[in-house]
Protein backbone atom coordinates (compact mmCIF):
# COMPACT_ATOMS: atom_id res chain seq x y z
CA UNK A 1 0.00 0.00 0.00
CA UNK A 2 1.22 3.42 -0.79
CA UNK A 3 0.34 6.43 1.34
CA UNK A 4 -2.76 8.33 0.28
CA UNK A 5 -1.06 11.27 -1.30
CA UNK A 6 1.55 13.93 -1.01
CA UNK A 7 0.47 17.53 -0.70
CA UNK A 8 2.24 20.39 -2.34
CA UNK A 9 1.59 24.03 -3.20
CA UNK A 10 2.32 25.44 -6.62
CA UNK A 11 5.16 27.90 -6.40
CA UNK A 12 5.18 31.26 -7.96
CA UNK A 13 8.02 30.06 -10.15
CA UNK A 14 7.36 26.80 -11.88
CA UNK A 15 9.95 24.28 -12.89
CA UNK A 16 10.07 21.82 -15.68
CA UNK A 17 11.80 18.58 -16.58
CA UNK A 18 15.56 18.42 -16.60
CA UNK A 19 15.89 20.58 -13.48
CA UNK A 20 19.08 20.28 -11.48
CA UNK A 21 17.42 19.42 -8.16
CA UNK A 22 15.58 16.41 -9.65
CA UNK A 23 16.56 13.12 -7.99
CA UNK A 24 19.06 10.88 -9.70
CA UNK A 25 17.89 7.34 -10.51
CA UNK A 26 19.86 6.07 -7.48
CA UNK A 27 18.09 8.49 -5.16
CA UNK A 28 14.74 7.77 -6.85
CA UNK A 29 15.05 4.08 -5.89
CA UNK A 30 15.33 5.03 -2.21
CA UNK A 31 12.44 7.53 -2.17
CA UNK A 32 9.06 6.88 -0.62
CA UNK A 33 6.35 5.91 -3.16
CA UNK A 34 2.97 7.66 -3.25
CA UNK A 35 -0.28 6.79 -5.03
CA UNK A 36 -1.23 10.38 -5.74
CA UNK A 37 -0.34 13.97 -4.96
CA UNK A 38 -2.40 17.10 -4.44
CA UNK A 39 -1.50 20.45 -5.91
CA UNK A 40 -2.97 23.56 -4.39
CA UNK A 41 -3.42 26.33 -6.92
CA UNK A 42 -3.10 30.05 -6.31
CA UNK A 43 -6.81 30.43 -5.52
CA UNK A 44 -6.76 27.60 -2.99
CA UNK A 45 -8.42 24.96 -5.20
CA UNK A 46 -6.88 21.51 -4.96
CA UNK A 47 -6.31 18.98 -7.72
CA UNK A 48 -5.55 15.32 -7.01
CA UNK A 49 -3.16 13.76 -9.56
CA UNK A 50 -3.18 9.94 -9.47
CA UNK A 51 -0.91 7.30 -10.96
CA UNK A 52 -1.78 6.64 -14.59
CA UNK A 53 -3.63 9.91 -15.14
CA UNK A 54 -2.77 12.37 -17.89
CA UNK A 55 -2.26 16.03 -17.20
CA UNK A 56 -1.09 19.34 -18.58
CA UNK A 57 2.12 20.89 -17.27
CA UNK A 58 3.32 24.42 -17.75
CA UNK A 59 5.82 24.64 -20.64
CA UNK A 60 9.33 25.48 -19.49
CA UNK A 61 9.27 28.71 -21.50
CA UNK A 62 6.13 30.07 -19.80
CA UNK A 63 5.61 31.89 -16.53
CA UNK A 64 3.12 30.83 -13.85
CA UNK A 65 -0.01 32.95 -14.16
CA UNK A 66 0.50 33.55 -17.90
CA UNK A 67 -2.79 33.05 -19.76
CA UNK A 68 -2.47 30.04 -22.07
CA UNK A 69 -4.94 28.25 -24.30
CA UNK A 70 -5.39 24.61 -23.29
CA UNK A 71 -3.60 23.33 -26.42
CA UNK A 72 -0.50 25.38 -25.54
CA UNK A 73 0.31 23.25 -22.49
CA UNK A 74 2.65 20.26 -22.48
CA UNK A 75 1.08 16.89 -21.83
CA UNK A 76 2.34 14.02 -19.67
CA UNK A 77 1.20 10.67 -18.27
CA UNK A 78 2.00 9.98 -14.60
CA UNK A 79 3.94 6.72 -14.16
CA UNK A 80 5.22 6.96 -10.56
CA UNK A 81 5.18 9.42 -7.66
CA UNK A 82 7.88 9.61 -4.98
CA UNK A 83 8.55 11.92 -2.06
CA UNK A 84 11.77 13.46 -0.79
CA UNK A 85 12.15 14.57 2.84
CA UNK A 86 8.86 12.91 3.69
CA UNK A 87 10.15 10.57 6.40
CA UNK A 88 7.40 9.34 8.67
CA UNK A 89 6.05 12.79 9.30
CA UNK A 90 2.70 13.75 7.90
CA UNK A 91 2.84 16.50 5.26
CA UNK A 92 0.52 18.51 7.53
CA UNK A 93 3.34 18.79 10.10
CA UNK A 94 5.68 20.35 7.61
CA UNK A 95 5.53 23.74 9.32
CA UNK A 96 5.92 22.39 12.86
CA UNK A 97 8.78 24.02 14.74
CA UNK A 98 11.60 21.64 15.40
CA UNK A 99 15.11 22.20 16.58
CA UNK A 100 16.52 20.53 13.51
CA UNK A 101 16.56 22.45 10.24
CA UNK A 102 13.09 21.96 8.72
CA UNK A 103 13.05 19.56 5.79
CA UNK A 104 10.41 20.57 3.29
CA UNK A 105 8.74 17.59 1.63
CA UNK A 106 9.12 17.52 -2.12
CA UNK A 107 7.17 15.36 -4.53
CA UNK A 108 8.68 14.10 -7.75
CA UNK A 109 6.87 12.47 -10.60
CA UNK A 110 8.11 10.03 -13.22
CA UNK A 111 6.26 10.97 -16.40
CA UNK A 112 6.04 9.97 -20.03
CA UNK A 113 6.06 12.91 -22.43
CA UNK A 114 3.56 13.51 -25.21
CA UNK A 115 5.28 15.39 -28.04
CA UNK A 116 3.76 18.15 -30.11
CA UNK A 117 3.56 17.59 -33.92
CA UNK A 118 6.11 20.40 -34.36
CA UNK A 119 8.66 18.65 -32.13
CA UNK A 120 8.18 15.41 -34.05
CA UNK A 121 8.62 17.17 -37.41
CA UNK A 122 12.11 18.18 -36.22
CA UNK A 123 12.99 14.57 -35.43
CA UNK A 124 11.32 12.54 -38.19
CA UNK A 125 12.09 13.37 -41.82
CA UNK A 126 8.90 13.68 -43.84
CA UNK A 127 6.60 14.12 -40.83
CA UNK A 128 4.56 17.24 -41.53
CA UNK A 129 3.20 19.26 -38.64
CA UNK A 130 0.64 20.72 -41.08
CA UNK A 131 -1.44 17.51 -41.29
CA UNK A 132 -2.00 17.47 -37.52
CA UNK A 133 -4.57 19.11 -35.24
CA UNK A 134 -3.98 21.69 -32.51
CA UNK A 135 -5.07 19.15 -29.89
CA UNK A 136 -3.01 16.32 -31.37
CA UNK A 137 -0.07 14.92 -29.41
CA UNK A 138 2.35 12.12 -30.17
CA UNK A 139 2.77 9.50 -27.47
CA UNK A 140 6.38 8.54 -26.74
CA UNK A 141 8.67 6.30 -24.70
CA UNK A 142 10.57 9.37 -23.42
CA UNK A 143 10.55 9.29 -19.61
CA UNK A 144 11.65 11.99 -17.18
CA UNK A 145 11.36 12.89 -13.51
CA UNK A 146 9.74 16.28 -12.96
CA UNK A 147 8.60 18.24 -9.93
CA UNK A 148 4.96 17.94 -8.83
CA UNK A 149 4.97 21.76 -8.78
CA UNK A 150 4.88 21.89 -12.58
CA UNK A 151 1.47 20.20 -12.86
CA UNK A 152 -1.45 22.25 -14.10
CA UNK A 153 -4.63 20.19 -14.50
CA UNK A 154 -5.95 16.74 -15.34
CA UNK A 155 -6.97 16.18 -18.97
CA UNK A 156 -7.95 12.97 -20.75
CA UNK A 157 -6.07 11.97 -23.91
CA UNK A 158 -8.00 9.80 -26.36
CA UNK A 159 -6.36 7.17 -28.52
CA UNK A 160 -7.19 7.61 -32.20
CA UNK A 161 -6.83 4.35 -34.13
CA UNK A 162 -7.39 5.50 -37.67
CA UNK A 163 -8.22 2.02 -38.98
CA UNK A 164 -10.72 1.16 -36.23
CA UNK A 165 -14.33 1.19 -37.48
CA UNK A 166 -15.43 1.39 -33.83
CA UNK A 167 -13.31 4.46 -33.10
CA UNK A 168 -15.23 6.68 -30.68
CA UNK A 169 -15.85 10.27 -31.85
CA UNK A 170 -13.18 12.84 -30.91
CA UNK A 171 -14.45 16.29 -30.03
CA UNK A 172 -13.00 19.62 -31.19
CA UNK A 173 -11.15 20.29 -27.94
CA UNK A 174 -10.29 16.70 -26.99
CA UNK A 175 -6.61 15.88 -26.79
CA UNK A 176 -5.84 12.75 -28.78
CA UNK A 177 -2.91 10.68 -30.03
CA UNK A 178 -2.69 8.59 -33.21
CA UNK A 179 1.10 8.11 -33.39
CA UNK A 180 3.76 6.69 -31.12
CA UNK A 181 7.31 8.04 -31.20
CA UNK A 182 10.09 5.64 -30.23
CA UNK A 183 13.01 7.70 -28.96
CA UNK A 184 14.94 4.85 -27.35
CA UNK A 185 16.03 3.24 -30.63
CA UNK A 186 19.16 4.47 -32.42
CA UNK A 187 17.07 6.50 -34.79
CA UNK A 188 13.72 7.96 -33.75
CA UNK A 189 10.87 5.95 -35.24
CA UNK A 190 7.19 6.75 -35.53
CA UNK A 191 4.30 4.34 -35.87
CA UNK A 192 0.51 4.61 -36.00
CA UNK A 193 -1.80 3.14 -33.41
CA UNK A 194 -3.77 0.41 -35.15
CA UNK A 195 -6.72 -1.86 -34.39
CA UNK A 196 -5.15 -4.59 -36.53
CA UNK A 197 -3.00 -7.27 -34.99
CA UNK A 198 -0.17 -8.97 -36.87
CA UNK A 199 0.52 -8.75 -40.61
CA UNK A 200 -1.07 -5.34 -40.68
CA UNK A 201 -0.66 -3.22 -43.75
CA UNK A 202 0.46 0.35 -43.37
CA UNK A 203 -2.28 2.91 -42.89
CA UNK A 204 -3.14 5.42 -45.52
CA UNK A 205 -4.45 5.97 -48.99
CA UNK A 206 -2.96 4.56 -52.21
CA UNK A 207 -1.31 7.96 -52.75
CA UNK A 208 0.75 7.38 -49.58
CA UNK A 209 -0.36 10.62 -47.91
CA UNK A 210 -1.49 10.51 -44.27
CA UNK A 211 -4.90 11.73 -43.08
CA UNK A 212 -4.64 15.52 -43.21
CA UNK A 213 -6.96 16.81 -40.48
CA UNK A 214 -6.97 20.33 -41.93
CA UNK A 215 -7.73 19.44 -45.57
CA UNK A 216 -11.18 20.87 -46.32
CA UNK A 217 -11.36 19.77 -49.96
CA UNK A 218 -14.45 17.66 -50.63
CA UNK A 219 -12.45 15.61 -53.14
CA UNK A 220 -10.15 14.62 -50.27
CA UNK A 221 -12.97 13.24 -48.14
CA UNK A 222 -11.80 9.72 -47.32
CA UNK A 223 -13.88 6.54 -47.72
CA UNK A 224 -13.32 3.44 -45.60
CA UNK A 225 -13.72 -0.24 -46.29
CA UNK A 226 -14.59 -1.72 -42.85
CA UNK A 227 -13.84 -5.38 -43.70
CA UNK A 228 -11.29 -6.75 -41.21
CA UNK A 229 -8.65 -7.49 -43.86
CA UNK A 230 -8.99 -3.97 -45.35
CA UNK A 231 -9.85 -1.31 -42.74
CA UNK A 232 -8.36 1.52 -44.64
CA UNK A 233 -9.43 4.98 -45.77
CA UNK A 234 -8.91 6.36 -49.28
CA UNK A 235 -9.28 9.83 -50.80
CA UNK A 236 -12.27 10.27 -53.11
CA UNK A 237 -9.97 11.75 -55.75
CA UNK A 238 -7.49 8.85 -55.60
CA UNK A 239 -10.27 6.23 -55.95
CA UNK A 240 -11.75 8.08 -58.92
CA UNK A 241 -8.37 8.54 -60.63
CA UNK A 242 -7.50 4.86 -60.26
CA UNK A 243 -10.97 3.84 -61.49
CA UNK A 244 -11.95 2.17 -58.23
CA UNK A 245 -15.66 2.74 -58.85
CA UNK A 246 -18.63 1.03 -60.39
CA UNK A 247 -22.22 1.84 -61.22
CA UNK A 248 -24.53 2.01 -58.19
CA UNK A 249 -26.96 -0.92 -58.54
CA UNK A 250 -28.93 -0.51 -55.29
CA UNK A 251 -29.13 2.20 -52.59
CA UNK A 252 -28.32 -0.41 -49.90
CA UNK A 253 -25.33 -1.92 -51.76
CA UNK A 254 -22.76 -0.86 -49.11
CA UNK A 255 -24.40 -3.23 -46.61
CA UNK A 256 -22.33 -5.90 -48.44
CA UNK A 257 -19.27 -4.73 -46.47
CA UNK A 258 -19.45 -5.78 -42.83
CA UNK A 259 -16.94 -4.72 -40.15
CA UNK A 260 -16.96 -8.26 -38.74
CA UNK A 261 -16.25 -10.53 -41.70
CA UNK A 262 -14.27 -10.47 -44.93
CA UNK A 263 -17.03 -12.59 -46.51
CA UNK A 264 -20.56 -11.48 -47.22
CA UNK A 265 -22.38 -10.89 -43.88
CA UNK A 266 -24.16 -14.00 -42.54
CA UNK A 267 -27.94 -13.67 -42.92
CA UNK A 268 -29.18 -16.81 -41.19
CA UNK A 269 -28.82 -17.64 -37.45
CA UNK A 270 -27.48 -21.17 -38.27
CA UNK A 271 -25.66 -20.90 -41.57
CA UNK A 272 -25.23 -24.21 -43.37
CA UNK A 273 -21.59 -25.23 -43.70
CA UNK A 274 -22.25 -26.60 -47.16
CA UNK A 275 -23.63 -23.40 -48.57
CA UNK A 276 -23.70 -23.16 -52.32
CA UNK A 277 -21.03 -20.71 -53.40
CA UNK A 278 -22.84 -17.54 -54.37
CA UNK A 279 -21.58 -14.52 -56.24
CA UNK A 280 -21.54 -11.16 -54.40
CA UNK A 281 -24.51 -10.09 -56.53
CA UNK A 282 -26.50 -13.18 -55.49
CA UNK A 283 -25.57 -12.61 -51.85
CA UNK A 284 -26.75 -9.01 -52.08
CA UNK A 285 -29.99 -10.12 -53.75
CA UNK A 286 -30.69 -12.40 -50.73
CA UNK A 287 -29.86 -9.57 -48.32
CA UNK A 288 -32.16 -7.04 -49.97
CA UNK A 289 -34.97 -9.62 -50.15
CA UNK A 290 -34.51 -10.45 -46.46
CA UNK A 291 -34.74 -6.73 -45.59
CA UNK A 292 -37.88 -6.33 -47.73
CA UNK A 293 -39.49 -9.35 -46.04
CA UNK A 294 -39.18 -7.94 -42.50
CA UNK A 295 -42.54 -7.05 -40.98
CA UNK A 296 -42.72 -4.46 -39.53
CA UNK A 297 -40.05 -3.04 -41.86
CA UNK A 298 -36.76 -1.61 -40.62
CA UNK A 299 -36.96 2.15 -39.93
CA UNK A 300 -35.91 4.14 -42.98
CA UNK A 301 -33.43 6.38 -41.04
CA UNK A 302 -31.66 3.22 -39.76
CA UNK A 303 -31.32 1.80 -43.27
CA UNK A 304 -30.13 5.15 -44.58
CA UNK A 305 -27.42 5.35 -41.91
CA UNK A 306 -26.35 1.70 -42.34
CA UNK A 307 -26.03 2.10 -46.11
CA UNK A 308 -24.14 5.38 -45.88
CA UNK A 309 -20.49 5.44 -46.94
CA UNK A 310 -18.02 5.44 -44.04
CA UNK A 311 -16.33 8.80 -44.43
CA UNK A 312 -14.09 11.31 -42.69
CA UNK A 313 -12.51 14.64 -43.57
CA UNK A 314 -12.44 18.29 -42.49
CA UNK A 315 -14.96 19.07 -45.27
CA UNK A 316 -17.55 17.20 -43.20
CA UNK A 317 -17.11 19.21 -40.01
CA UNK A 318 -20.07 21.42 -41.00
CA UNK A 319 -22.22 18.27 -41.08
CA UNK A 320 -21.34 17.74 -37.44
CA UNK A 321 -18.71 15.05 -38.03
CA UNK A 322 -15.60 15.11 -35.87
CA UNK A 323 -12.18 14.12 -37.17
CA UNK A 324 -12.87 10.40 -36.64
CA UNK A 325 -15.77 10.59 -39.12
CA UNK A 326 -18.97 8.55 -39.04
CA UNK A 327 -17.48 5.01 -38.95
CA UNK A 328 -18.59 4.16 -35.42
CA UNK A 329 -22.21 5.17 -36.13
CA UNK A 330 -22.44 3.48 -39.53
CA UNK A 331 -20.97 0.14 -38.43
CA UNK A 332 -23.26 0.11 -35.37
CA UNK A 333 -26.25 0.65 -37.70
CA UNK A 334 -25.02 -2.11 -40.08
CA UNK A 335 -24.67 -4.57 -37.18
CA UNK A 336 -28.21 -3.69 -36.11
CA UNK A 337 -29.54 -4.45 -39.61
CA UNK A 338 -27.63 -7.79 -39.86
CA UNK A 339 -28.93 -8.82 -36.41
CA UNK A 340 -32.52 -7.96 -37.41
CA UNK A 341 -32.21 -10.09 -40.56
CA UNK A 342 -30.77 -13.02 -38.58
CA UNK A 343 -33.62 -12.82 -36.06
CA UNK A 344 -36.22 -12.27 -38.76
CA UNK A 345 -37.69 -9.32 -36.88
CA UNK A 346 -37.34 -5.56 -37.04
CA UNK A 347 -35.53 -3.47 -34.43
CA UNK A 348 -37.37 -2.50 -31.22
CA UNK A 349 -38.64 1.03 -30.66
CA UNK A 350 -35.93 3.28 -29.29
CA UNK A 351 -33.24 1.85 -31.58
CA UNK A 352 -31.78 5.36 -31.89
CA UNK A 353 -30.92 5.49 -28.21
CA UNK A 354 -29.31 2.02 -28.46
CA UNK A 355 -26.97 3.50 -31.05
CA UNK A 356 -26.33 6.53 -28.84
CA UNK A 357 -26.17 8.69 -31.91
CA UNK A 358 -26.55 12.33 -32.57
CA UNK A 359 -25.88 12.01 -36.24
CA UNK A 360 -28.18 12.94 -39.06
CA UNK A 361 -27.32 10.67 -41.99
CA UNK A 362 -29.02 12.98 -44.48
CA UNK A 363 -26.94 16.00 -43.42
CA UNK A 364 -23.70 14.04 -43.93
CA UNK A 365 -24.83 12.81 -47.35
CA UNK A 366 -25.60 16.35 -48.50
CA UNK A 367 -21.93 17.26 -47.95
CA UNK A 368 -20.46 14.36 -49.93
CA UNK A 369 -19.34 15.01 -53.51
CA UNK A 370 -21.96 13.86 -56.03
CA UNK A 371 -20.46 10.83 -57.76
CA UNK A 372 -22.09 10.48 -61.16
CA UNK A 373 -21.14 9.33 -64.63
CA UNK A 374 -20.69 12.34 -66.93
CA UNK A 375 -22.64 11.09 -69.91
CA UNK A 376 -25.57 9.20 -68.34
CA UNK A 377 -25.71 10.93 -64.92
CA UNK A 378 -25.93 7.46 -63.32
CA UNK A 379 -24.83 7.28 -59.69
CA UNK A 380 -21.47 5.66 -58.89
CA UNK A 381 -20.28 3.79 -55.87
CA UNK A 382 -16.60 3.72 -54.94
CA UNK A 383 -14.83 0.37 -54.56
CA UNK A 384 -12.23 -0.79 -52.05
CA UNK A 385 -8.85 -1.15 -53.83
CA UNK A 386 -8.13 -4.22 -51.67
CA UNK A 387 -11.31 -6.34 -51.79
CA UNK A 388 -13.32 -4.51 -54.51
CA UNK A 389 -16.29 -4.23 -52.14
CA UNK A 390 -18.64 -1.20 -52.43
CA UNK A 391 -17.60 1.54 -49.99
ZN1 LIG B 1 -4.94 9.44 -51.64
ZN1 LIG C 1 -12.09 -3.88 -48.67
Structure description:
Residues 1-25 are annotated as: Disordered. Residues 1-14 have a biased composition (Basic residues). This is BAH domain-containing protein. There is one protein chain. Helix 5 packs across helix 6 (327-343). Helices cover 18% and strands 22% of the residues. A hairpin with a 6-residue loop joins strand 12 and strand 13. The chain is of the alpha+beta class. The protein folds into two domains: 6-192, SH3 type barrels; 218-272 and 280-382, no CATH class. Bound molecules: zinc ion (2 copies). One zinc ion is lined by residues 225, 227, 230, 384, 386-387, 389.
Instruction: Give the tally of β-strands.
Output: 18
CA radius of gyration: 27 Å
CATH architecture of the largest domain: Roll
Q: What's the overall average pLDDT, rounded?
A: 86
Assign the CATH class of the largest domain: Mainly Beta
Bound ligands, named by name, code or SMILES: zinc ion
Structural class: alpha+beta
Shape: elongated
| Domains, number | 2
Identify the CATH homologous superfamily of the largest domain: Bromo adjacent homology (BAH) domain
Protein name: BAH domain-containing protein
Biased composition (Basic residues): 1-14
Region (Disordered): 1-25
Organism: Mycena rosella (Pink bonnet)
The gist of it:
The protein has 391 residues and is of the alpha+beta class.
Amino acid sequence: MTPAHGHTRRKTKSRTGGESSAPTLEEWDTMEPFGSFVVEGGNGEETVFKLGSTATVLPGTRKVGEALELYQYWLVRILAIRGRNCGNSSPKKKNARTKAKPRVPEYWVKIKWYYSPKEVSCRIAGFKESHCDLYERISSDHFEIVSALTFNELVPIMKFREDDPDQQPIGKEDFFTRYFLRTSSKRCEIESYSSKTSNSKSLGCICGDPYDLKDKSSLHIMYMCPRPQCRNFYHTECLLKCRHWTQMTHPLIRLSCSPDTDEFPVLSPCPSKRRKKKTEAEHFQSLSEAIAALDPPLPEPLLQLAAQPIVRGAALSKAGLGLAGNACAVVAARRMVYAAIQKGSSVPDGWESDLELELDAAVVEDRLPALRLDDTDDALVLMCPNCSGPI
